[in-house]
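>> received
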Amino acid sequence: MDYIDRMIATREDSDETQRQLAERIRYRQPQIARYETRINEPPIRYLIDFCNHYKVSADYILGLPSNYRKPR
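>> returned
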């Protein structure tokens, strides 16, 4: 499962449509559709807004281990 699949699963697990997500995070639904169909790469700003909306970590969405250390 890649990060787009995790984003789609997170949205669907929350019973939200693309349109509902778009309204709540102030994006246009066609933009979200292009991200989810891999036509366009989602920008970092979208990842941040998405994670804040669903209260999930970017590490989870990106498939990174949770035990990475923070830089000094």
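>> The CA atoms of residues 24 and 53 lie 8 Å apart.
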